[in-house]
Specification:
- This protein is of the alpha/beta class.
- It has one domain: HAD superfamily/HAD-like (Rossmann fold), CATH 3.40.50.
- It is built from nine helices and eight strands.
- The relative contact order is 0.18.
């Protein structure tokens, strides 16, 4: 079936796709610069995380538990205050104009825009608001007594987990048949690429660039100067 005979959904990865950077690493740097966290191992943890991510061997559960342990004594209200400031001061200047323009075009056509990211959902939701996305999905962290425990709630939105979350959303909204546009930069999103009908890779990593050539997926280069 063609895209004209189906419901349409536009799905975007976040980090290095809509954003010129990695929101998790930027968040780490924000907490460090604000002296909310002062242990240098906090920075080293992120360096290892990004290396493992690109090597496709990241243990997302272990990383997030360690990451959150550095500010576990701060409640969710405090963290949300930081997130709002972080999003406005650090994230907003790094959003690609091309991405924001395409999101606007989809919304004008009444096509739902979904951002699915392997970043903690309290960051993803805040950034998605800046992008005017309709729906956002991230890694939900367990909450107890208004504090994050460090444990993941449910299936993380990482690799195949993104497909799982999308399918659950479609089921809840009774969407059995949809034409899916998908934008990403990362080989880790290959499972979702294979679920999409129309894939555009944005500033792709080497592996995704090679696969996109074989699959005849569209490739675009976005920067902050347009």
């Amino acid at each position: 079936m063609t895209d004209k005979t189906k419901n349409k959904i536009a799905i975007f990865d976040l980090d290095e796709t809509l954003l010129a950077g990695d929101s998790s690493r930027l968040w780490t740097r924000y907490l460090w610069d604000k002296k909310i966290v002062t242990d240098p191992h906090f920075l080293k943890l992120d360096e290892q995380m990004i290396a493992d991510y690109y090597a496709e061997k990241l243990d997302i559960n272990q990383y997030l538990y360690q990451h959150l342990s550095y500010f576990k004594n701060h409640n969710i209200n405090e963290i949300n205050h930081w997130v709002n400031d972080f999003t406005e001061t650090k994230i907003q200047p790094l959003l690609y104009p091309e991405g924001m323009s395409i999101i606007t075009q989809y919304r004008q056509k009444n096509i739902p825009v979904i951002i699915i990211s392997a970043t903690m959902s309290f960051l993803v939701h805040a950034i998605a608001k800046q992008l005017n996305a309709d729906i956002s999905m991230g890694i939900d962290m367990q909450i107890k007594d208004n504090y994050y425990t460090g444990y993941i709630e449910g299936i993380p939105t990482f690799r195949e987990g993104k497909v799982d979350h999308l399918n659950r959303w479609k089921e809840v909204n009774n969407i059995n048949n949809a034409y899916i546009y998908f934008y990403t930069d990362s080989i880790n999103d290959l499972p979702l690429c294979y679920q999409a009908d129309n894939v555009t890779v944005i500033n792709p990593d080497q592996q995704l660039a090679q696969i996109s050539q074989m699959k005849n997926w569209k490739q675009q280069h976005w920067d902050l100067n347009k």
